[in-house]
Every structure is written in structure tokens, then in C-alpha cells.
Amino acid sequence: MTDTAMPASTSATSPAPVSSSTPVSSAAPVTSSAPVNTVLVANRGEIARRVFTTARRTGRGTAAVYSDADADAPHVREADAAVRLPGATPGETYLRGDLIVAAARAAGADAVHPGYGFLSENADFARAVVDAGLTWIGPPVEAIALMGSKVESKKRMAEAGVPVLEQLDPDEVTDDQLPVLVKASAGGGGRGMRVVRDLADLRPQIEAARAEAASAFGDPTVFCERYLETGRHIEVQVMADAHGTVLALGERECSIQRRHQKVVEEAPSPLVERIDGAGGDMRRRLFDAARLAASVIGYEGAGTVEFLADEQGRFYFLEMNTRLQVEHPVTELTTGIDLVEMQFRAAEGARFGEGEGSGKDTAARGHAIEVRLYAEDPALDWQPQSGTVHRFSVPGVTAEFAAPHADRGVRLDSGIEDGSAVGVHYDPMLAKVIAWAPDRGEAARILASALARARIHGLVTNRDLLVNVLRHPAFLAGETDTAFFDRHGLDALSAPLADAVAERVSALAAALAQAAANRAAATVVPGLPGGWRNVPSQPQRKDFRGARGTHEVDYRLTRDGLATGVVDGVGLVSAAPDRVVLTVDGLRREYAVARYGGGAAGDRVHVDSSSGPCAFEEVPRFVDPSDMQAAGSLLAPMPGTVIRLGAAVGDTVTVGQPVLWLEAMKMEHAIAAPADGVLTEVAVEAGTQVEVGAVLAVVSAADAAEGPDGDGSDGPRQSGEHA
Description:
This protein is of the alpha+beta class.
């Protein structure tokens, strides 16, 4: 791989049916007829690796760009050439169109693929690529510009006869129109979106949405529309050539979402299957509307037309994503079509045959389900996580970035590997795991099993939530709408896969593995079991903090075997530093144990078994006083940047009241008061960069804040005492 660097700065009714070969009605787009020989992917992570896979298979060269934070990322090593973009934040790197165009020239690329996110739907960037004499692997600039504005695109779709939801003026919203959804006109991914159910909240939510949209997309424009609490998110994959042919390659359902961002996606849609199975024609109407939407703007390449549908099969245009979607693998698995290859062909000016897929035979190719594996904690309001991925292994994977050849299997599209660092600058998605099978139930079962048995060490993820969703009776019955998490309870859905007893036994396995490791490293009588005594003695004791609390693990190894108060009916078969075999109520189970250094907070231990994965922090026996924090301290839950303060020293605050806001992983996160009291210390200001665990502020009880003299002072403090 060649590695070069860039300088730090350089300049409710259905539309009439539309044929898949409907002539383009807008101005002729700029189209390249030159072959794509070397493609630069203006993106990072798994989407860059996905494009590289097809490029290599079709004999094309590859070029990557990378920020300083991504210098060791897999996509950088896999490219034929990689160009450094100095800096770490998106604004310094992946959002710098000028640097990316220069990188393409430096790498000898003749084409640019934008991936998704970042500049993928930026008309100015597309124009710059074309003006530089490079092939743009995407739709015409005019189409990007029109569909990049949700306000203008809805007007155009309404004029063409595509059903749309009424757009509302934020200044004229009334009580009877609530709830409403505030949306950013540019961008997507749930950023810049707010649900408002009270008029008093409308103005502050609009301002917050504008700030988030400006940060994420560089455009603060927002608008409002009616919010359907239980809608179905249905989208149609389209592919168009430069000669007027528009193909509909099947629909997807992406209704299970968090913060308006998709989490579970599948093809075909359970809603469409149910309605059409009862004699309806929802799929035909969806395809007609999608082809019409693409045709009236002279579309080329891959695109997705998104709709919001109700249980009766009525649907309304939401937006058109003028790029490849994150969830495109489920369409590839159910159609057998490589969408990236079709993007290359469209960019080269190829003519699509009408037999290249109409989407009508989607169901005949089985069912595919994709989940997005995020570094986040759903139980803590989807709080993103950062750190090192010590191990990442998904069992049963039959293909990576491509369709399995068998009639069922697991596909993995990942941007990480063992040892990858997950920072705070980018979206917290780690990987996409996709299962394909002859029917929906089997696909869900295969995917849930692969996730449950995956070894994911180092970070908290949404893995348990995904497995619980895939196994939920409502999901298996096809009852998947945008209110799924609210209806079935986030607490229950995000519960650990290992129950309380399984977690206690796993903690015991962790203690036994550590004892085995200590004995293996011993220089005196190393063959004796850890903790062995030839006379009765006190039990060995270890404390581990897990998802269900702190476990006090006590045990003794006696002549009669393992004696422990952790749980009844446990017997020891064998113990090694990385593998413990126990019998629990007569059932033999194996526990794989991995330990990673955690510094002052204690080691982090991962225990994987058929009872469910468990992660623990070893609780140190003795705590350094300097590591202790004052009661009421607000600690940074993640590295990030303080963007604004909501209170000042001396202010009275109530539990749950936001004290400040952090920006991390392209999202805003409110840091709230842990209890009622007075803000007695603020250690940061707007713009401060903080690390995880840093003390941001201290909330003291009102009487403690006043001090013994009632003036907020408790007399002279000794040097070094915490203020």
C-alpha cells in the first residue's frame, strides 16, 4: 500500500403506475462513459471496505483517505494507496471536499465513491469531483441538490403525484397538530430531529435541532411535519441508468429505530408481505411511487426512496437518499444483485436491461435481516462508548461484504477488528451483522444466535438489545413499528442476556480463572490449585462488578472439591487461565475467560458461555484516596467537548436537570444533576475537551452547601482538601 499525506490546508393516494423504463423528464445529467479503473472512497470504516471488496472483485484499483484517528484502521491497510487527511474531527478531514479531491488526484484515482454520511449527499462536493475531471459514482448534481432539501423535495414529489405528509411552518404549529417532528432539511441519521408534544417545548427544540443540524451537516434549516407515533418505515431501493431506465429492486422495512436512526432492517417488509398476502397491491404501489420519484428528477445510480406507512398500507414520501444506504446488504441478499457493482456500471454509462431485477421476485429469494452493532449503552439513554475493542469475533460468518453462496448464512460488514480504537469523532456503529434464510423466522433465529455467541470485548454495545429484539414474540410476529421500544419497554429489551444466576456463576468462573493464572505464573509449587490449603481456612474472596450489580465471590478448593456460597449446585471440572469448566445443577458448561488490564479501576474481565456473555470490572481491595470523588460529582461518561452550560456555581438544581451538554460521536448528550442541591463547583466551560471519568461539576445538598455558618463556608480548608 502506498501512503501519502495531504497538506494541512488547500484551496394518501397512489400515483399512476410508471414503467421501469420511464424516460427522464429533467435536464440531461452529466454522465461518464469512461471506465472506472481506480476508485477513491471518500469515507471510512465498513463502507470503505465494502466498496473495496467489489472494486477488487471487478479488477479495479482502490484508494483510501484517513484522518489521524483512523491511521491504523482496517480500511487504510486494505487500500492500494492511502492518503492522510491531517486532523481528527470530521470538519478537518472527511468533510473537506477540497482535500478529498486532491487526494484522488494524488492517488491516481479516476473516480470517487462517496459511501454514505459525510459528503455523500453534498451537491457541492459532487460538482467539485466532476469539475476535477473525475467520475462521480453517484447521481447527478441537480438530483442531489433537490433531494438534499427535504423542504423542496417534498414540494416536487407532491407536484408529481407522490403522496406526502403536510409540511408545517414552525411558527404556525397549533395544539391540535401535535405531536410534530422537527427535522433538519439536510442530512439524516436521526441528527437534527426532535419530537415535540407540548407547544411550550417547540421553540427550544427547534433551536436545539438547528444547532445539531449545523454541526452535523453545515446547514441549520429545519421544518416540522405531523408525527405518526406508530408508523412503519418502508423504503424502496432504486437503480437508474443514464438512458431512462429506473429499476425497483425490492423494498426494505426499517421501523425499529432509536433516536430516529435505524437499528434493525429487513427485506422484504413484513407489512407489505401481510397486506399483499391478503390480496393487496402495496408492493406495486410502492414501486410505482419510487420509480416516479426517481424519474421526475432524472436520477442515475443507486438511491432509496423512503416512505412512512400505516397498518392499512397507505404511505407517504419522507425523503430520497441519493446514495447507497447502510442497510443495502439485505437487498443484495434477497435479490442476488451487487449494488456497488451496479453503481460502477451506472457511472460508466451502462444501459440496464429491464430483466435486471424488478423486485417482484424478492420474496422468492428468502428473507434477510440486518442489525447495526453500536458502541453504546441502551440502558443509559443510548450513551455512546469509546475505547479499545480488545476482541471482536462473530461465529458462523459465511461471507464478509458479500452475499453467502449457500441458501442461508451470516454476512459481516465491519469497520473494526481486534485492537481497533473507537474514538469520539465518528458515529459509534461498529459493524453490521446480516442473516439470510429461506424464511423470516429462521433468519431471525440464525442472527440472534450469532450475536449471542459473538465475543465482543472492551466496550459496552447494544448486542443484548439486538438479540432480545430478534427473539421477541412481537418482532417474530412482524409487529415492527417506530414505537417498538416504547411499547415493549427499553428496560426489558436492553436486559443482559445472562440472568442473575448466570452472571454470578460467570463471576465465579472469572475468579477461578484468575487463580489458575496466578498459579501458572508461580515459581513455588505451581502445580497446586489456586487457593488450596491442607487445613481448613478462610475462603478466597474476589469482588466483580457486572451488569446486575457487584458479586462477592468466595470459594475454597478442598479435598472434596469446590466449596462456594456463590450459588448452590456448582462443581469444578477444570480451571485454566482462559477456560473454566463447571457443572451447574448437573449441567456441564464451559466458560471462556479473557482479562484485560484496567489500571486503578481494576481489570476488566469478559466471560463468554452458553448462559450469556458477561463483562466485569474487578473491584480493587484497596482504593487510593486520591482516586475517590466528592459525593455529588458529575463525571464525564465519555470523552467529548463541552458545548454549553445550563447552570452556574451557586444555582439550585433538581435531580435530572441538565447542568451541561457534551458533544461526542456527532450527537449532543445532556449531563444531568444526580440529586437536588446546589451547584458548588463547575470544572469546565464551553469548549473544554474532557476525558471519560473527568469531574465536570459537583452538586451538594443544600444544607451542606450553606456550611455550618449558613454562608456557604465551612471554615478553613486544609491544603489539598477537595473543594
